[in-house]
């Protein structure tokens, strides 16, 4: 079992290894707009965003707070609908998909990592990691356990399966969250400030883990971050300002 | 998913402790109330074993008349009553008439396979030969009292089928047999159906009718049961009272109808079940509000979790189902504890109630609580399903 965490920290080479040319487009955003409307105010969160994410890419998104980074991630993750524009996943527009079909796509194609981990405190580490597989038809209990355990081994937490989130450090919790994202073997991982709540050492560990995951497994990663140093380690950096892509 | 829900609820058992206790207590109370209700309902549905619609009861009191003279006066009264137009039949009986709140019990001894056994309580009703006709009693075997019993060496009795089953086994041969205890002995001449003088809410109990001879002077002033023509009313009542007074100036009579007595007794018998039912209803409303409140609060507290589950691939329907599933799991935990208590009732034979009544009450109580939990979870589960995952995740 490859321990991504161990290999990342032990690796003597630079974390960001360049990939051999862009793969197929896994996410294609065309003219995406997101407007939040209340009775008195209209807030444009995303303004005509055109963006393509290729298979195997590690893209970081930066920008000041409130510039629409998280909204972009929510739309990419099929958690939110754009006000206008089209989103294509694997070349197919998803706008017309039903709630059930979107849920299925989220479950099979996308893994999420959040700044505040979003682990369920009343479930053990193993049960938390099993979560995406719980919503996947045809995966039995035994297979779920095996895959969750394998994902935890990958992030170096194979010995913590019976622990509860409250018994772990922030870095360990984020590794559990990454293992949860990995358990479903998604093509894309969407990480919303995954190191935002961690100190610099822990942040580095998580960043190394994501880089290794991208390099060794070829997982497409889109990461929202405020950390310039971490963003520079990724293959592409996109900057946002006031809902628009500026670079 | 069920295993996941059980794990989740088990891990949250402390947080859900009060809810669990509430469901447990509600189940126990519902079970007890259900048992009382079912017991009464089943009794109510069973035949009384006699007719009461056109039967009147006369309570006689000889007043200051010397005892040696009372028997002759009673015979006069009986003759007058029987000759009164509108009166179909007159029977002498003891004070434990139907719906009278009065009982008269004895015990009987029996021996089966060499083992002596006592049967008690056995209701004992003293009855003249006319009682069968007046009350419309049904005979299962043998005969009712007649002239042959006047000369019998041993007092004749007609036992009911419950007593027959107790003494001689279900459907056993009773006619011609002797029954008794260390003090007295009787000869069984017939077997009647049930006779539930205790009214509709009473359970069929072993009982026997003891023949009262027309020459019996020991119970001169007693109770009379009269079968009257349908539609008889105050006029007949007035005439009967006047006739009794003319036959025995010191005699006091009190005439009531069995339908009136039945109503009185039914009302009294229903007080406890109705009271329990009302308490139970308030308890259910309380439990329902508790469940609803806790679920609503849970949904508000767990918006982040719901967002994560949606992000992991749960559909809105799946979230709704999860909320419902969770409350059903908690309900099952509470019911499991409650069943441990409830099952002791049939095992220990509490109140001698038939076990099937207890088991039916368990099913009813469990079904009611599952239904209540489902109804209370419907709105919160819809709320949960409507949570926008992107918003919920951002809030956290």
UniProtKB/TrEMBL annotation, chain B:
One term under GO cellular component: plasma membrane
All residue ranges annotated as the MacB-like periplasmic core domain in the record: 28-233
Assigned keywords, A-Z: Cell membrane, Membrane, Transmembrane, Transmembrane helix
The keyword tRNA processing belongs to this UniProt entry's keyword annotation: no
Compartmental location: Cell membrane
Domain ABC3 transporter permease C-terminal as annotated: residue spans: 279-389
GO molecular function: transmembrane transporter activity
InterPro entries registered for this protein in UniProt: ABC3_permease_C (IPR003838), MacB_PCD (IPR025857), Macrolide_Exporter_MacB (IPR050250)
Membrane-crossing residue ranges in chain numbering: 20-41, 270-297, 318-345, 357-379
Membrane topology qualifier: Multi-pass membrane protein
Protein family according to the UniProt entry: Belongs to the ABC-4 integral membrane protein family.
Protein known as: ABC transporter permease
Species in which this protein is naturally found: Hymenobacter lapidiphilus
């Amino acid at each position: 079992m490859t321990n991504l965490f161990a290999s990342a920290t032990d690796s003597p080479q630079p974390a960001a290894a360049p990939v051999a040319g862009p793969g197929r487009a896994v996410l294609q955003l065309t003219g995406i707009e997101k407007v939040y409307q209340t009775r008195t105010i209209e807030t444009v969160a995303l303004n005509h965003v055109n963006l393509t994410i290729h298979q195997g890419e590690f893209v970081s998104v930066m920008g000041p707070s409130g510039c629409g980074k998280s909204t972009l991630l929510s739309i990419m993750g099929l958690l939110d609908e754009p006000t206008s524009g089209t989103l294509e996943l694997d070349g197919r527009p998803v706008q017309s998909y039903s709630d059930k079909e979107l849920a299925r796509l989220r479950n099979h194609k996308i893994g999420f990592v959040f700044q505040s981990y979003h682990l369920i405190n009343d479930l053990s580490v193993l049960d938390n990691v099993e979560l995406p597989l719980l919503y996947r038809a045809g995966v039995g209990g035994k297979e779920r356990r095996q895959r969750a355990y394998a994902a935890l081994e990958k992030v170096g937490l194979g010995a913590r399966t019976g622990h509860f989130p409250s018994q772990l450090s922030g870095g360990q919790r984020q590794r559990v969250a990454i293992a949860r994202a990995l358990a479903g073997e998604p093509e894309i991982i969407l990480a919303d400030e995954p190191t935002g709540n961690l100190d610099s050492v822990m942040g580095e560990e998580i960043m190394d883990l994501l880089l290794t995951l991208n390099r060794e497994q070829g997982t497409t990663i889109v990461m929202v971050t405020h950390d310039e140093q971490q963003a520079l380690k990724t293959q592409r950096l996109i900057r946002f300002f006031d809902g628009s892509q500026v670079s | 998913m069920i295993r996941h829900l059980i794990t989740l609820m088990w891990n949250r058992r402390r947080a859900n402790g009060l809810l669990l206790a509430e469901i447990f207590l509600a189940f126990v109370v519902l079970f007890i109330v259900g048992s009382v209700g079912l017991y009464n309902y089943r009794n109510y549905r069973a035949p009384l074993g006699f007719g009461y619609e056109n039967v009147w009861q006369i309570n006689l009191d000889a007043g200051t008349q010397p005892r040696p003279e009372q028997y002759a006066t009673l015979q006069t009264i009986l003759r007058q009553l029987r000759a009164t137009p509108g009166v179909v039949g007159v029977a002498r009986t003891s004070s434990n008439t139907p719906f009278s709140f009065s009982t008269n019990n004895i015990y009987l001894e029996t021996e089966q396979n060499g083992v002596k056994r006592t049967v008690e309580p056995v209701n004992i009703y003293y009855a003249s030969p006319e009682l069968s006709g007046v009350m419309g009693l049904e005979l299962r075997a043998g005969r009712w009292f007649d002239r042959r019993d006047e000369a019998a060496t041993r007092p004749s009795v007609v036992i009911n089928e419950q007593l027959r089953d107790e003494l001689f086994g279900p459907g056993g041969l009773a006619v011609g047999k002797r029954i008794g205890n260390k003090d007295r002995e009787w000869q069984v001449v017939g077997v009647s159906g049930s006779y539930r003088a205790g009214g509709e809410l009473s359970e069929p109990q072993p009982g026997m009718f003891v023949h009262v001879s027309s020459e019996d002077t020991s119970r001169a002033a007693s109770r009379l049961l009269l079968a009257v023509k349908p539609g008889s009313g105050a006029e007949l009542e007035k005439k009967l009272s006047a006739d009794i007074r003319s036959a025995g100036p010191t005699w006091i009579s009190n005439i009531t109808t069995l339908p009136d007595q039945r109503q009185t007794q039914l009302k009294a018998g229903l007080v406890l079940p109705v009271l329990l039912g009302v308490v139970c209803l308030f308890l259910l409303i309380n439990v329902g509000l508790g469940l609803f409140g806790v679920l609503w609060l849970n949904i508000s507290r767990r918006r982040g979790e719901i967002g994560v589950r949606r992000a992991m691939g749960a559909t809105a329907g799946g979230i709704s189902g999860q909320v419902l599933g969770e409350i059903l799991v908690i309900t099952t935990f509470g019911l499991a504890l409650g069943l441990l208590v409830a099952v002791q009732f049939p095992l220990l034979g509490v109140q001698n109630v038939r076990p099937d009544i207890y088991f039916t009450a368990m099913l009813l109580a469990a079904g009611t609580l599952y239904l209540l939990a489902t109804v209370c979870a419907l709105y919160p589960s819809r709320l949960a399903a409507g949570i926008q995952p992107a918003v919920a995740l951002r809030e956290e």
